[in-house]
Amino acid sequence: MAAVQQAWVEHSAHVQPSVRATYFGARGKLMKDLTLEEGALVPVTPILRTGIVRTSGGLDRVEIDGYDAIVVYGLAFVFTKRVHRIFARFGTADLRAPGVTRLFSKACVEDIFRANLEQDICAKVLRQIRSVSQVPVLVHAKPFPPENEFHEYVEDERLKSADPDYLRQTMALFQEVARAVCAELDAELLWQDESTCSLPGYTRPEYCLQGLRWNPREAENETHMNKEFGWVVLRRLLERLDEISRGKVLAKMESDTTLIAAQ
Amino acid sequence: MKSPYDTLSPEKFWKSGAADTDPLTVAGLYTKKFPIAPQDRIATAGSCFAQHITRQFRDHKFTVMDLESPPHFMPDDLQRAYGFSLYSARYGNIYTVRHLLQLAQDAFARKVDASDVWLKDGRWYDAIRPSVDPRGFESVEEALANRRNHLTKVRAVFETMQVFFFTLGLTEAWTCRKTGRVYPVAPGIIAGDYDPELFEFRNFGFNDVYDDFFAFYRLIHEHNPEARFVLTVSPVPLTATASDNHVLVATTYSKSVLRSAAGALCAAFADIDYFPSYEIIASHWSKSAFFEPNMRSITPAGVAAVMRIFFAAHGVQSETGAEVATASSSGTHSVQASVDDLERERRRKERKRARREQRRSGKEVCDDLLLDTFAP
Lengths: 263, 376
Known about the structure:
The complex is a heterodimer. By secondary structure, chain A is α/β, with parallel strands linked by helices. Helices cover 38% and strands 16% of the residues of chain A. In chain B, helix 4 runs parallel beside helix 6 (206-223) and helix 6 packs across helix 7 (247-268). At the A-B interface, helix 3, strand 7 and helix 4 of A face helix 5 of B.
């Protein structure tokens, strides 16, 4: 999220001056402690509140109907490891890695993905928003893990030797279900731009160098993306918001946008 | 004057063996034919009551085979819905011995029959286990590929199991007139359409059940000579009957046939044992205490009581810590501790355990319960 915010600062010329963004950020797992209170998302733990206040410039609650659109960024749906672990042992009738001897139906794997997605923090936040508001919501998936983690994530030799097309298809199956889950909550899911991916489900290593963090005291690691990545994401979000608002984001019309952040 | 009853032990008489005993503490009810050790590879199958038995085996650290274990990240309720973790493979409930025989024949012959795929709302269902993929398959090919794959696992179960624990459930079944294939549920219940020209009702008799199991037994021994068998009869009544009889009469017929066939098989073969779960739960002796209010489902306490007797016979103390039934292999009647406070404590723990079990395991998956939806 810090990468997106940095891109917002550096590329403000692309956005109408009247468009404002408020960021509410904290570590993704902490976001489970958001609760709904009188139409606002409110942190219930001190550590989450600290993050929200720091990133939003002093606000300690997200007044849902106070914004023209909400972007849920970075909370959602990075199941690369889960997808790989499932497909290391199982395949479908037309999607199976070499050496995998067990089959399940496509409906079965879809239901597994769905059950996990519906338990995701992102789905919880979306349900909270939808219980009080019909504000347009964009969901941008959390960045995929760095490509060099591929061999750590893929624990099974059968998958390591699988061709990228197989990995792409397994991820596509997952992404299709995630998109449907979001759609059922009246939210639009945007996946990480393919230009930032090499192997399916992994981020190109150059986007993981000099990753930005909200809290500079956090140790540097490759799970945080850099400002170049942030700009790819932001550009995509702005373009979509501009379409939804019929030209009010990139055109000269007033609009408020809030970004809910989690890294 | 002498009579052949003079020297019989107390459990041979109704008064001392049943009327004056508590179903929870009775001894001498089951005499094992052969030992089953926790490390023996046990395969389970049968009607929905067999799911309880499978869970009990697992809870007591017996080695229940599962060659189709669930994928990672699959929640428990979804596992059950997709037939994972219920038995030793994803064959779903096997209510009739004819179905069991057919499964083994298919597995060893690697036989997959395209006519066993039924349609519903544009999706395709494996008619031999229609509830195991509750949303069906995208195509006939996907259904057949999954069935083919399933049969390889079933074959492996049958080839490597050391003990096969089978619960006989029903005598009633629906079959294909043309092929003779038998289905666990009638067409039109989960998928497919009922056409009397294509399908017929069968209510198997003693000879059918006996012969089918004997054929199964021989087939298994061709591939796995060391396999031993334990039969039991499900105490769960029929949800509905397609026979001309009242459902109560049909239930009695069905259970009587199964019970007598199981008894005859047990008497004929040294490696077939019979375990009396039916008697413990369904006879008037237990005063229906182990049935839920619908007089059909079995309470967790009932299942626990049944299996405690089984485990005690095999030298495994139940989790309650009270070995209340110690039926020995010699069949001698054992006098049980009857101290009141011990019994109260045991029952308290039993209730607690039953509640825990109910929360944890949820309801068993019973295809035939769907028949209830057709009731007036």
